[in-house]
Amino acid sequence: SSIVSAIEQGRIVYDNIRKFVNYLLSANAVEVGVIVISMLLGMPLPLLPLQILWVNLMTDSWPALALGIGKAEEDVMKRKPRHPKESIFRGLTGDFIITGILGTLVVLGIFVWAEGVMELAEARTVALSTLITFELFRAYSCKNTKAFGSIFSNKWLNLSVILSILLQVLIIYSPLHIAFKLVPIGFSEWWKIILFSSTGFFFLEFWKIIKFRKEIVKEEGIL
After folding, report:
1. Residue 109 φ then ψ, to 5°
2. pLDDT by residue (tens digit) across 89-110?
3. CB-neighbour burial class of residue 58 (10 A; exposed 0-12, middle 13-18, buried 19+)
4. pTM metric for this prediction
5. How far is CA 162 from the centre of its chain?
6. Using CA atoms, how far apart are residues 55 and 27, in angstroms rounded to an integer?
7. What are the counts of helices (DSSP H) followed by strands (DSSP E) for the chain?
């Protein structure tokens, strides 16, 4: 029984490390994509340096740590043993690429729209809020190996997401927005932010379904 328990704990730790790495690298791919593409296109920067640091604090700290202490998934002991030399990045490259491309399109898309109807500072506020909420949705996507798993079972992740949202609201609607060069936005902007940023979660969940089917087909020797 102690051997079985040790194997289970080892698999949990390994899964959590993969989730942690997957989340951090894919989230940072979005940030790099947004800045690089906007510079190549000659656009105004969607995010200023202090705002980028704020994104890293809100998304790369406690949400990432919460993923590292998640509980076991239901099928953790039903999986076949992995190869000892298997890379920790196995199967994650597609996630990095898709998240980076999709997140960049979402953030730049809503920034271009906002810049056309608002002042630049307000457009940056919308872009910043979209990027943060996109990455928080991404954290929930990274939480489960299978698509549409138990989304809210990690209480530490739930608390970290709530904390990030509250702090984002605080800097927008308090005098702190002056230091961050942000401006208060209305409800009509918030529902667009949530709608656009949530597309990444649903797209990546369906991507899991596609990957899972490919793995089954490969195991059965069809490919």
Report:
1. -60, -50
2. 887 888 889 999 999 999 999 9
3. buried
4. 0.89
5. 15
6. 10
7. 8, 0
Query: What does the block give as tokens for 166?
Result: 């509250």
Which of 121, 140, 136 is closest to 189 using CA atoms? 121
Structure tokens at 100: 């980076």
Tell me the pLDDT tens digit for each residue of 22-71: 999 999 999 999 999 999 999 999 999 999 999 999 988 889 999 988 88
Q: How far apart are CA 26 and CA 51, in angstroms?
A: 19
The closest alpha carbon to 131, from 20, 53, 209, 184, belongs to 53
Q: Are the CB atoms for 27 and 100 separated by under 8 Å?
A: no
| CA-based max dimension of the chain | 64
Question: What are the Cα distances from residue 104, in Å, to 126, 146, 173?
Answer: 14, 24, 26
Per-residue CA distances from 193 to 51, 71, 87, 112, 136 (Å): 17, 30, 36, 13, 12
Residue with structure tokens 């490259």? Answer: 93
Letter for the amino acid at 7?
I
